[in-house]
């Protein structure tokens, strides 16, 4: 008797799953493609962006090329081995890489949460939307999600 009740209960549960309302599909925007790009020697957002870069992609794909491109990406004809190395004796000045993309977000999604997903980025990632700092992440080559809802302007440029 108990076994029969259990079978009937499980059957009813399985049948009722078909009648559960489905979640509405999420709205996505593909941001891959050409972005504006600039490098600076300071941690301040540049006023002008003079380069284009494909996303996904790395800085060696920027056009026109970044300063010191050959120093970073050209393989030397010969490598001189050193017995001693001074970690502070670097032959370059660190640079900040800035990416910018202007988009319009539809008013139709105004009441939904907006999340920017970055599949991979190298080194520290700082996310700004409309001049608002929405957070930083130090994960390297690890996907990150940033909630950007509070910084968006719906129906106009972002």
Structure, explained:
This protein is α+β, with helices and mostly antiparallel strands and 158 residues long. Among the domains are: 28-69 and 93-101, no CATH class; 102-158, Galactose-binding domain-like (Jelly Rolls). It is 13% helix and 23% strand. The strands form three sheets. The chain has a three-stranded antiparallel β-sheet with strand order 2-1-3, with no helix packed on it. A hairpin with a 2-residue loop joins strand 5 (125-129) and strand 6. The mean pLDDT is 83.
Strands, helices and their partners?
Elements: H1 2-16, E1 33-40, E2 51-55, H2 69-73, E3 96-100, E4 115-118, E5 125-129, E6 132-137, E7 144-147
Antiparallel strand pairs: 1-2, 1-3, 4-7, 5-6
Order of helices and strands: HEEHEEEEE
Low-pLDDT ranges = none
Overall geometric form: elongated
Main sheet strand line-up: 2-1-3
List the defining traits of the structure above.
158 residues; alpha+beta; two-stranded antiparallel ribbon; 23% strand; elongated
Provide a quick synopsis of the model.
Helices cover 13% and strands 23% of the residues.
């Amino acid at each position: 008797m108990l076994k029969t009740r259990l079978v009937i209960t499980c059957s009813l549960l399985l049948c009722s799953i078909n009648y559960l309302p489905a979640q509405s599909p999420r709205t996505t925007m593909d941001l891959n493609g050409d972005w504006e790009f600039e490098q600076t020697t300071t941690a301040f957002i540049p006023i002008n962006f003079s380069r284009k870069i494909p996303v996904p992609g790395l800085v060696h794909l920027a056009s026109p090329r970044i300063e010191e491109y050959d120093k970073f990406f050209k393989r030397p004809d010969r490598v001189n081995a050193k017995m001693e190395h001074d970690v502070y004796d670097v032959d370059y000045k660190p640079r900040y890489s800035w990416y910018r993309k202007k988009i319009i977000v539809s008013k139709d999604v105004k009441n939904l949460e907006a999340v920017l997903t970055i599949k991979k980025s190298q080194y520290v990632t700082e996310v700004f939307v409309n001049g608002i700092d929405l957070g930083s992440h130090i994960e390297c080559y690890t996907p990150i999600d940033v909630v950007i809802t509070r910084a968006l302007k719906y129906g106009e440029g972002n």
